[in-house]
Design a protein that fits this description.
Largest sheet: 3 strands, parallel
CATH topology: Transcription Regulator spoIIAA
CATH architecture: 2-Layer Sandwich
Helix content: 40-55%
Strand order of the largest sheet: 1-3-5
Order of helices and strands: EEHEEHEHH
Number of strands: 5
Radius of gyration: 11 Å
Number of helices: 4
Structural class: alpha/beta
CATH class: Alpha Beta
Shape: globular
Strand content: 5-15%
Distance between the termini: 20 Å
């Protein structure tokens, strides 16, 4: 079962979302971004922190249904490959 990112991920709720994900590490292997419509670069911080936690366990995240804006943002920051985008 995937972990579904909410519609909005910004500085206001990023820490809460990050903690929710870390408390459910097994679901973080598949992250569904289909609901994600409003976000800033904070979402990359959340995704990268989850990736780091999973890598410590020999696993990696898979980001599914990423909006084009997220792909572009990851490219600008140079983290596309780290997130599989």
């Amino acid at each position: 079962m995937p972990f579904f990112l909410p519609q909005v991920v910004t500085q206001e709720n990023a820490l809460q979302i990050q903690q929710e994900g870390l408390s459910n590490l097994t679901t973080l292997r598949n992250i569904d971004c289909s609901s994600l419509t409003e976000f800033d670069s904070t979402v990359l911080t959340v995704l990268l922190s989850w990736q780091k936690s999973l890598q410590a366990e020999g696993q990696a995240i898979s980001v599914e249904h990423a909006p084009e804006k997220l792909k572009v943002l990851a490219g600008v920051y140079g983290v596309s490959a780290l997130l599989g985008l």
